[in-house]
Amino acid sequence: MKRGLMVSAAAVLFSAVAAQADYTLHVLHINDFHSRIEPISAYDSTCAAEAEAKGECFGGVARLATKIRELRDGLRAQGQNVIVLDAGDQYQGSLFYTTYKGRDTVEFMNAIGFDAMAVGNHEFDDGPQGLQILAEGAKFPVVSGNLDLSQSPELKGKIGGTLVLEVGGEKLGIVSALAMDTPETAAPGPNVIFMDDMDSLGADVRELTDQGVDKIVALTHSGYKRDQAFAASVAGIDAVIGGHSHTLLGDMEGAAGPYPTMVEGADGAMVPVATAYAYGKYLGHLVLTWDDQGKLIKAEGQPILLDGSVVPDEALAARVKEMAEPIERLKQKRVAEIAAPIDGSRETCRARECEMGSLVADAMLARVKGQGISIAIQNGGGLRASIPAGVVTMGDVLAVLPFQNTLSTFRLKGADVVAALENGASQIEEGAGRFAQVAGLKYTLDHAAPAGSRISEVMVRDGADWVPLDPQAIYGVVSQNYMRAGGDGYRVFAEKATDAYDFGPDLAEVLADYLAKQGPDFAPGLDGRITVK
């Protein structure tokens, strides 16, 4: 059964300024933080201490705390209304989550002072019990409107369906929805029942409207495309603050659209949609203005880059350092034992079949074997080290795969698979990292041929047999999020993939689990999956 929450606490109850016809609200928001407690590099992975000292890092919970406090305190001092929202997926993505399983999330979010958070799919990665840690520990409401939790002993009564915040003497309604495919991408279990997201949002908006709430924001974790559909279809929503797709909006290079993106709503009004990339690299700042009839008349703002110019909060930075100590010990954790070294050298993995490339691709394919996936493609440049024979530690695995890339699955036409392989072979002369290491696939490579025509004799596994790849057939492919987004020239993945899901487990975790299952007699080998002429 869904529930509504009414919050009127000091964290969100601001002194009303002199009565005015218009009402302005500043919304500070993040989404898809994915456990990036420590600062990140330009590649969204944990930033080295040397780079942090040079001011080359971004984000991190201490830097985020500084910017939120600076903006919130400054705006309040001017008599402005401010709320701080999170659109979900605090969990999963670094060894902080592996170590603390959400307890760190609770501590840091409470310290920053969030006003509300939507449930993300990765909050269910460790089942309802994982989300329970956040729901019970947070000093702010956690909401998700399209979940029926009446049968969940862990979550019943702990996650709100709707929320009303009193801000500056006005009631602000929050409705929420979580991606409908969460049962396939996480582990909510059989007792968490998903209701249609569009229908649920509509019903919740009507419920709040009937209560006299005329300012309503949807805080969702469904992705940029779905958020635009919500804005267009659900009458009564004034703005959408979203997450899930890790979409960058704004006027910077690489943005997928303007911030906010304006969508014509069901009643003809323009509805702003905002999201703020991921990993705490940006803090969204959306400014909404309503007239005295409760009609939204202005929406503006930009995401704020949390770069080295933002000084991390000293207290939180010290706490992060303290909590990182056992993580350093985790890197010493034994995960497997192997009988022979695994070659992951740059020279081999960027030019031909290499042991580490085959191993990682095999591990990727094994992880998703039950999802109709038959092909794995991993870029050689993503493999950063070899592993010696003997005991393998988590630190060894992280040296090979340090980028915190997540598993991506999608569908791709056979002709586009060949195009991806051609991209991988296009810069062999330069030692480029795009070279394609594969599993479930065989191909022949001619180094001497012109770029774009170096690949031939592409075969795919069909049971115990190998058969020619069909250019018109659709294949299930597994790769990782960097490549799926077009990294290393794999634009065909970004432009042609369908049914894509980019937020699977960390690739290092996938490799560690796979190695652990091989046993101490495991020795890598080359099986001719890439033939070089």
TrEMBL record:
Tagged with keyword Signal: yes
Signal peptide: 1-21
GO terms assigned for molecular function: hydrolase activity, acting on ester bonds; metal ion binding; nucleotide binding
CDD domains linked: MPP_CD73_N
A Gene Ontology biological process term: nucleotide catabolic process
This protein's UniProt keywords: Hydrolase, Metal-binding, Nucleotide-binding, Signal
Keyword Signal (UniProt): yes
Domain annotation Calcineurin-like phosphoesterase: ranges: 26-247
InterPro entries assigned to the protein according to its UniProt record, in alphabetical order: 5'-Nucleotdase_C, 5'-Nucleotdase_C_sf, 5'-Nucleotdase_CS, 5_nucleotidase/apyrase, Calcineurin-like_PHP, Metallo-depent_PP-like
Domain 5'-Nucleotidase C-terminal as annotated: residue spans: 342-495
Family affiliation: Belongs to the 5'-nucleotidase family.
Entry protein name: 5'-nucleotidase
Naturally occurring in which organism (per UniProt): Paracoccus thiocyanatus
Lineage: Bacteria, Pseudomonadati, Pseudomonadota, Alphaproteobacteria, Rhodobacterales
